[in-house]
Amino acid sequence: MTVTPKKRRVGLAPSSGLGRLGGMLLVVWGAATVGFFALRLIPGDPVDVMLGVHANVSEAVRAQIRADWGLTEPLFLQYTNYLGRLLRGDLGTSYRLQQPVVDVIGQQVTPTIQLMALAMVFALALAISSAMLARGRRSRAVLSFLELFAVSSPTFWTGLVLITVFSFGLHWFPIAGTDGFLALVLPAATLAIPVAGIISQVLRQGLDSASVMPFADTARARGVGHAGLLFRHTLRHAAANSITLTGYIVGSLLGGSVLVETVFARQGLGRVALDAIMNRDIPIVLGVIVLAAAVFAVINLLIDLAYSLLDPRLRIAERDA
Amino acid sequence: MTVIDAARAPTRRQHAGVGVWIAGAFIVMLLLATVAPWLFTSVDPLETDVMNALQAPSFGHPFGTDQAGRDVFARVLYGSRYSLAVGFGATALAMVAGLTIGAVAGVLHRVGDSVLSRAIEVVMAFPEFLLALIVIAVIGPGEASLLIAVAIAVIPAYARVARAQTLVVKRAGYVEAARTLGLRSSTTLVRHVIPNTLGPLLVMAVMGIGTAITAAAGLSFLGLGPKAPTPEWGLILAAGRNYVATAWWIAVFPGLVITATVISTSTVGRFLQAKAAGRKR
Amino acid sequence: MSDVASVTNLVSVTNLVSVTNLSVSFAGAPTPAVDGVSFCIAAGECLAIVGESGSGKTLTARSLIGLTPDTAQVRFDKLSIADVDTRALTEQAWRQLRGAIVGLVSQDALVSLDPLRRVAAEVAEPLHVHENLARTQVRERVLDLLRRVAIPLPEVRARQYPHELSGGLRQRALIASALAAGPVLLIADEPTTALDVTVQAQVLALLGELKASGLALLLISHDLAVVRNLADRVAVMKDGRFVEVADTATLFTAPTQEYTRRLLRAATEVRSAPPADTASPIVLSARGLVKSYRRPHGRFRAVDGVTFDLRSGSTVGIVGESGSGKTTLAKMLLGIEKPDEGEVLLNGEVWSSLPESRRRAHRARIQVIHQNSLDVFDPRFTVKKILAEAVALEGTPRTHRTGRIAELMEAVALPTALLTRRPHQLSGGQQQRVAIARALARRPEILVCDEPVSSLDVTVQAQVLDLLARLQRSRGLSMVFISHDLAVVRGLSHQILVMKDGVVVEQGEAEELFTRPQHPFTKHLLAVHGALSESL
């Protein structure tokens, strides 16, 4: 949705390793808490969800089920119990599937990771080649329109267009499914297109601002050409700049996987999340929330580390702090 | 002493280019279609004509017809009503909420600010689309839900920008200058702080309208918005999905219109942004 | 004049660089940025181009390496470097020239060296581009280069990043990298501007040695003192043209052009303030002001026990280096920051301890001019709105406001045509004048000037200082004048405070302090200042 490259937080972010770990846990705990209470607001009886459509059982049986699931306990107690289980790595049991949430997510996480990973590879390849191609005024204008188009076109539509052209038109790739590498290509490309647009935009902004810095001038005055300037100097500066986007990008890949998996009828976490939301299967929804928050927290940690690897000036600042 | 040689290339002009004009014109046309779709087509978007189902684009049906023989062009035109309402409504809602939360965080003292900022950060941990889905799960599907879900999903982003901007403006030289000059703090707030905080948020909102439209279309594509046969962009696309092999036009045209809408709002937004940035250099 | 000088030089065959009728223009700009410039440089010779911001000196230098902005159109009758006629050069051929035949040293090595790469990598880059050397050979060459520019411990420095080096060493490393591929011409664009005075001298000495070894030098500078030490000939540039070209000695002793004289005067003139009435009433007094801030490692005292009196119609000058607490002091005087200890009295009445609501009524009496006026204007406002806001506070009736604004513009010598502009569309000098006009709108008794001319060119500086002096006389203003620049403070002040680390190390009558400084720090400031003026 809205692209707002995250500025490096100064002052808010705890600088010590322990502080960072605490910050991570805080985000996961916060997400679990918000999710837990928000999902209580879902109207309807969880027992209906558990029993499915042909549930025609007596009130006594329903009460029994409620008691078994701990739903009769006071809300706060349910919450602390949930947190306790969470600490032990137990995300609860699905209402509908009657399986541990950890297992449900575990089974479906692999296709989504494959999808996201290949999409990321596609996106980076596209973005970097676009950054290299953008030299003259005309090629820049064309590329920046392509980027804008990529960022602006809805994922579910791109997917349909790709299916129309490459599956029905050219018969290069299967129409749908989860089996094999070929079935992965179109969904990954669909997911990659908007992300490539975003990375490319931010990368180029970074390259542009690095290329007008005095050090770039110095390098040109040494006789360095376009490619030399890009690979020896500006790309690194731009990368340091774009890395802040990683969290946003992984988030949009995760969110986008819901649509892409639907369009291509693939298995995966996105589908699990969507089914759970449609069927009010609260434990699974909560599981997905906690997972997303954990991924976000870990990524932010990695971003901080990547920064100091890319920029020696920060290493010093941290050593001094 | 720093010496800046002013003999650099002249600063880039901030006149609207052709692209900005086209984008603006497209948005105006869409708004017109929302208010008065009959200006552009005389066909009823709900009128079925089974004899003419799945017709390829032609002069009579520029975007072709769908499985029930309805005119896709008319459906897309009438559909702009729902999509724009959600896009503009959700953006306005998110901006107001985000501005309030962000400004409060920016004005609060250290502890309050850091608590609120942390809270914003926790919500930002959710991918926006997932957040919108969860909101729909809580409040149930429907047109109004779509608007609220999309708004809630983007509130954190607005809140964060509003907070940062409030802090920047609060410390700006011109706010201190207003104080030294002897301006009342309420006057300073109304005349300098609020307008300068609002500016970047408005730009962000203009750019955000397009993305809100996409998100709303995505949700209704998944069946969480209005119900068929309402002519809504996401729904038309969802229906077209079943006919991609035989009737590509049902899906392709609405998608193109969505893309064009998003491109237009981004283009106008970027222009406004460049214009605002030009004033500060 | 310039043409004659360059034509006679053209006869000489030893010329390494010869440029005839070079012009650089931008589409849409009414006049060319560089307008028909001709010059020659021989091996072992240093030509300096001196000029203020926007004079075209940097563009001239850039034309020699084909690195003008994309939007610039460069035209010349002749431009040859080391017998290479650059007219026929493709971009590829230009690249072979850059670094290998012409080296460039620019202003601030902190930003002119890639901050993400080690010193060795930066110094070695021209070698990678122009020569095909083995890794060990490159390493040897880099160490040789670092030794050549007298960097101690070259093995250690090579492995460090630019920000880990001191300013002087960084600049030397930048010079080493410019020398790496053995150029015959070095372009030094404000090579010492970012450095302290003492380090400046060392870097200039290094450039002098390089010149002696046969390198041709094109020195670009705004600073006449720098130029005099190094250049054999000087070209004074203004509005894209060479106003005057002469031997260094001739130019400094017998300048023929008015502009050259003005530059020399602005740089050397010792101004002193007209005498002020020593018995006039005290309008502002600071009593034992202390202000400290919280820092990660305990509290930090920005201002520590400052006491002084400002008499009506006179000026108190406050001198100190950056970080000495001058700005914090200014904020306390203005009632923006509350002192931790001590107080500020305005006309003998409480000021710093007043609650803001009661202070506002008296704010008109003490106004301020900052270093960077662009920051203190609301970016959305036009000049007219900026002034109208201040005028309205005076209770001027709506019908009289336009007249009052015109009056203010006249007082600061700005044309009323500028009223419709926004601050960013004004030059630095104009911005400063608008700031002064806004302050005057409130008819203040006291003006606090915090580095008001530090970001301006010398001739503009002189104009703004003249304006302030004139206003002081005509309006009987009392001023607190804060600056790091001793010459500037001396020209306006009656009393002077010298600050270091938040403490006033010396204070007294201006002339007394300049002729008989007591504290070592004052002596140091004066010595540094003297060394510079003496070289002129």
Give a short overview.
The complex is a heterotrimer of chains A (about 325), B (about 280) and C (about 525). By secondary structure, chain A is mainly alpha-helical.
Give structural notes.
The complex is a heterotrimer of chains A (321), B (281) and C (536). Chain A is 74% helix and 0% strand. Chain A is mainly alpha-helical. The longest helix of chain A has 33 residues. Chain A is flat, with a radius of gyration of 24 Å. Chain B is an all-alpha fold. Chain B has 9 helices and no strands. The two termini of chain B are 19 Å apart. Chain C contains 21 helices and 21 strands. Chain C is globular. Chains in contact: A-B, A-C, B-C. Chains A and B meet through helix 1, helix 6, helix 7, helix 11 and helix 12 of A and helix 3, helix 4, helix 5, helix 7 and helix 8 of B.
**Number of helical segments with 4 or more residues of chain C:** 21
The major beta sheet of chain C can be summarized as:
6 strands, mixed
Largest interface: A-B, 53 and 56 residues
- The H/E string of chain A reads HHHHHHHHHHHHHH
**pLDDT < 50 runs, ≥5 residues of chain A:** 1-14, 317-321
CA-based gyration radius of chain C: 26 Å
| Distinct helical segment count of chain A | 14
Strand order of the largest sheet of chain C: 7-8-9-3-10-11
